[in-house]
Each structure stands twice: as C-alpha cells, then as structure tokens.
C-alpha cells in the first residue's frame, strides 16, 4: 500500500474492547487464487510475493476488492508486510482477524502461528515470538467450499449463479485484519452483567500473565461524568467485581443510553493495562406470552437484515453504511432486526447499541448438514466463539442458532446447541431452529409468507384465545403460554425497473395495492393479543431477491417511509 493510499475501513473494529495501541492492516495485499489447492505442496507460504493484488477486507468476489471474480474459488493466498514499532518490542503482539471464510492458516516471518475453522467468528493469535522490530512478513491461506455440506455458508449460493434467496459467495478475508500491542500482563476478555434493579454492573473477566500484587480497577461514566468505581485485588487468571452506579440510565428501543467503562490492571498505583469499553443498563425477561425489557412488555417490530452490499458483498463499504442500515429501518418505524443467516461484525452491533436498536443474533447454518452429530462438530465451536465475542452488546436481545432446518435436523444436535447456548448466556431468550420443528426453545416462532390478508388473519385467530394455529401443532413443539413470534412474514415482491426478480407470491399490481397488503398483514400481527413480535422480510433487496422495502443500494426507498412508519408504529394489542 502506498503512503497516499487511503486505508479502507480504517476505524477500530471493536469499540466494545479497545486499547490505544493498535495497527490496522487493511489495504493492498498480495493475492493469488489457488484453484488446484496445490499451494501447500508448493510451499507457497515461504514466498514473499504473490502474482496479484487485492484490497482487504473485501472478498475477491466483490467489486471493492478490485478483483470481482464470482465463480467458485476453492483456496486463496494473501501476503503483506508490516513494520513493528520499536515501542512494541518489549510487549506482546496480538494478530486479529475479524473474519475469514472458511479454513484459515497463518504464517508470520515463515513461522506457522495458527489455524482456524469458521467463516464468521473472529479469531486471534499471540505472535510475539515470531515478530521483530521493523519489517515483518504475513502470509495467509484460506480454503472455502460452500458445496461440502460440512461448513456453514448462510445465504451463499451453492450453484454457479445466484438464485432465489441465495447470493454471491464470499471467500477469504472479509473483515478487518489488525495488530494489537498489549503488556505482559493484560486483560484477555470479560463478560458484563448489567443489573437494572440494583443499579450496578457486574464484571467477570480473564487475565493473561502474572497477576500477583496487582489489582483490577473498573470506572464507569455517563456522558463524561464519573458514576461508579470498584477495585479488587487479583488472584489467579480470573476476576469478578460489582460496580455500583450513582445514576440510572436505562437502555431501551430508540434510546441507546450507554455508560462508558474503563478496565485497568494496576500494579502499586501504576496502570499496567487499560481497556476502553461501554455497557447498557437493561434486562430481558420472558414472562408468560411476552418479552419484557426493563420490566415492561415491548412489542418487537423487526425487519430482516441479511448484511449484503452490492459492492462489498458481505462487507459494508464504510462504517457509515452500517449506521445507515439501522437508520433507514428506524425511519420506517422498526425498532430492531433479525440479523439473518450471518454473524454481523462488532461495529454494526456498536451502532445498534448506540442507537437503541434491538437485534437477534443468528448463526448462518444454511449449507451445513445437521442431520447427525457431524453437524455439531462444524457449528458448536464457531457458535460459542460468536457468543463470547458479542455477549456484552445490549442491543442483542436474543439468540437463534439454526434457521429453517426442515428435514435436515437431528433433534439431539438441536437440544445440545440449545443447552450450551443457555449455559453460556443465562440472560437472553434462545430460539433453537427458527421457523421449523422446535426441540428446546424459549420462544415459539413461525415463518409464514401467506400473501392473502384474510387467510393470514384466520391462521392467527386461535392466538387471540390462548390457542395455537392448528396447522403448526405437528412440526412445532408448543407449550401453552409461550411467546409467539412471527419471525418471517410478508416478503412482498416489488421490483424496480424492468427485471421482475424473485420474491414470495404474486406481486401487487400497484404501489397502493402493496401498501394495502403490507398494512393488512402487519395489522393482523399488531392487533392480535397472542403475538409479541414480528419480523418483516426484508429491509432491502439482495441481488435477484426483490422483496425489500429499499433497493439493493440501501439508499432508495421503494415506498414512502412515512407510510410504512405509520403502519408499524400503531399500538399493539399486548401494549394495551
């Protein structure tokens, strides 16, 4: 990368866990596609030059990568150099990857430092023993096979072309790569437990290095004013402490009131390590047939967001694009989203936190066969990595690890995934397999793309009387009193231009007919006493799928946002 070249996606990728000393490695890298997957045999990792170039963090299928190759790519190689500052030499150096799809191996100065499987979760390695002051060489190899049925691939097409609701693939690095300088003793991670009732926050964390004679100190502030502090002597590699808060500011939809937080390791009055973070004071409960936030029933007016971009595919071109996606949804009266078949990057979650936007965190299970225990092997580890990375985001109000598994489902696999999720996170509700046969779930959710409003109402009518739609009894394990979430509906087809595209059912003939159908379907959910949440499909078009409320550019609304907002923001029956 030349000195004049602007670094793409230059912002810190983890505002929820940030240190001052870090280095963004995005930009121009050496690049080669390895169609025969022979590079390992040829010892390509020993090479310090590759035949082509790519712009990281954009995948080679994307226009922003400067390659735009959309056929299948079985393997890729990356190479770049970086300069290690003199001040980092006496400390430890961590190499971070936001995400790389799917099977990644990394070498630093010819030394292999690690291997990671999973196309969506973040990963890192301590590379201190392999780096030197001044020039260093980094080599990355990634294999990808969306047709194997052994790797989760979400909405990536398993055919040459995109079709229906499957789109252009993503291979290799697709999130920021960065270096972080940490002291010899440092904070490795933490989980935040806000307590609305007692107005405090609990912290559980882990330490790397020697903790003897050291303390952990946590300071909390709100809009620049210090509102809490706690100090505790360290003992071993873990710590727990509670921070009382002198002011109560709750996080809620539309109001992302965030406390800033500083976590320090202190040795005899000297700050050894310092991490900057934040948290939201909020509590989620499932009570009878409703989901409560901060002891109040909140109807979730959600929209499906698939996280695709015409020029970046899986990667937003800029941070502003992430913020904009949330803003256009809120401008239409939605208070959150299902982040569908993709683990979204932490920076999106940061803006959801800050803007008061509720989201469901999902796992991109499509492409993975879970009809046996083999499926667990290829999903549980990555799912646990996602839970650990994203646990602290107040915007995440629930988890869903599988979606529409249909007949490709081993109930024992589903049950174990549910139990592991609940064991790791006791604070949020969990949906096991959205829109299909539930095994263990906290929420009873259904997908229904009926386009006829009267048929849709008839299907939902039993919920008004504490019943359950008859046709769902066999494939859904329902318990009386469970919250009912229509987690996919609508998908009304409306193409802009000559291309008819793909969508659900017959497209309305006019814009007025579209609004009438949208209004009828949405009101059938809002005005039903047994429904606590809906999720409309979808926020924007994706390639050939034209059932978005915006076009694929994410900038052009197909309908007046104020009309959609007026429909969405009507008072729900459970809010009466």
UniProtKB/TrEMBL annotation:
Q: From the Swiss-Prot or TrEMBL record, give the protein name.
A: Beta-galactosidase
PANTHER family assigned: BETA-GALACTOSIDASE, HYDROLASE
Q: Tell me the organism.
A: Vallitalea pronyensis
Q: Where is the Glycosyl hydrolases family 2 sugar binding domain?
A: 71-146
Q: Which InterPro entries match?
A: Beta-gal/glucu_dom_sf (IPR036156), Galactose-bd-like_sf (IPR008979), GH (IPR017853), GH2_Domain-Containing (IPR051913), Glyco_hydro_2_cat (IPR006103), Glyco_hydro_2_N (IPR006104), Ig-like_fold (IPR013783), Ig-like_GH2 (IPR006102)
Keywords assigned by UniProt, alphabetized: Glycosidase, Hydrolase
Q: Which residues form the Glycoside hydrolase family 2 catalytic domain?
A: 318-491
**What family does the database annotate?**
Belongs to the glycosyl hydrolase 2 family.
- Indicate the segments forming the Glycoside hydrolase family 2 immunoglobulin-like beta-sandwich domain, all copies: 185-282
Gene Ontology BP term (one): carbohydrate metabolic process
Instruction: Tell me the superkingdom of the source.
Output: Bacteria
Sample GO molecular function, one term: hydrolase activity, hydrolyzing O-glycosyl compounds
Q: In the UniProt record, does the keyword Repressor occur?
A: no
Concerning Pfam families, the annotation shows: Glyco_hydro_2 (PF00703), Glyco_hydro_2_C (PF02836), Glyco_hydro_2_N (PF02837)
């Amino acid at each position: 990368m030349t000195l004049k070249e602007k670094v793409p996606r230059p912002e810190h990728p983890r505002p929820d866990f940030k240190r001052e000393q870090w280095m963004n490695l995005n930009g121009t890298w050496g690049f080669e596609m390895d169609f025969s997957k022979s590079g390992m045999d040829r010892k390509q990792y020993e090479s310090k030059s590759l035949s082509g170039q790519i712009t990281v963090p954009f995948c080679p299928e994307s226009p922003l990568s400067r390659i735009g190759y959309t056929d299948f790519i079985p393997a890729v190689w990356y190479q770049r150099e970086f300069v290690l500052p003199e001040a980092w030499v006496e400390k430890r150096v961590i190499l971070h990857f936001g995400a790389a799809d799917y099977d990644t191996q990394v070498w630093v100065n010819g030394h292999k430092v690690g291997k990671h499987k999973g196309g969506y979760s973040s990963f890192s390695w301590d590379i201190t023993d392999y780096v030197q002051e001044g020039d260093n060489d980094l080599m990355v190899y990634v294999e990808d096979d969306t047709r194997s049925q052994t790797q989760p691939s979400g909405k990536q097409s398993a055919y040459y072309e995109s079709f229906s609701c499957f789109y252009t693939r993503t291979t290799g690095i697709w999130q920021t790569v960065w270096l972080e300088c940490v002291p010899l003793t440092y904070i490795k991670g933490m989980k935040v437990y806000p307590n609305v009732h007692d107005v405090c926050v609990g912290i559980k964390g882990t330490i790397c290095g020697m903790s003897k004679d050291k303390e952990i100190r946590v300071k909390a502030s709100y809009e620049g004013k210090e509102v809490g502090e706690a100090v505790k002597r360290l003992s071993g590699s873990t710590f727990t402490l509670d921070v009382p808060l002198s002011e109560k500011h709750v996080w809620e939809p539309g109001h992302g009131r965030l406390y800033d937080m500083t976590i320090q390791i202190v040795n005899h009055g000297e700050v050894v390590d310092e991490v900057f973070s934040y948290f939201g004071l909020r509590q989620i409960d499932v009570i009878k047939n409703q989901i409560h936030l901060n002891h109040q029933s909140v109807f979730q007016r959600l929209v499906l967001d698939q996280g695709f971009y015409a020029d970046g595919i899986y990667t937003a071109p800029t941070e502003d694009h992430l913020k904009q996606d949330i803003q256009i949804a809120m401008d239409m009266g939605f208070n959150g989203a299902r982040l569908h078949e993709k683990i979204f990057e932490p920076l999106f979650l940061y803006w959801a936190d800050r803007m008061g936007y509720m989201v469901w965190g999902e796992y991109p299970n499509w492409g993975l066969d879970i009809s046996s225990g083999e499926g667990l092997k290829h999903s549980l580890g990555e799912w646990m990595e996602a839970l650990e990375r994203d646990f602290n985001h107040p915007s995440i109000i629930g988890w869903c690890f599988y979606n529409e598994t249909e007949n490709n489902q081993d109930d024992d696999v589903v049950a174990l995934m549910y139990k592991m999720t609940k064991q790791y996170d006791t604070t949020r509700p969990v949906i096991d397999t959205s829109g299909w046969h539930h095994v263990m779930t906290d929420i009873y959710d259904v997908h229904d793309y009926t386009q006829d409003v009267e048929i849709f109402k008839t299907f939902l009518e039993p919920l008004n009387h504490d019943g359950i739609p008859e046709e769902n009894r066999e494939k859904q394990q329902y318990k009386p009193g469970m919250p009912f979430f229509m987690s996919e509906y609508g998908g009304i087809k409306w193409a802009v231009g000559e291309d008819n595209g793909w969508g659900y059912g017959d497209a309305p003939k006019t814009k007025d007919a579209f609004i009438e159908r949208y209004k009828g379907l949405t009101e059938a959910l809002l005005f039903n006493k047994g429904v606590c949440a809906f999720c409309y499909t979808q926020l924007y078009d994706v390639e050939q799928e034209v059932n978005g409320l915006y076009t694929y550019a994410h900038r052009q609304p197909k309908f007046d946002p104020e009309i959609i907002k007026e429909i969405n923001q009507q008072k729900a029956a459970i809010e009466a």
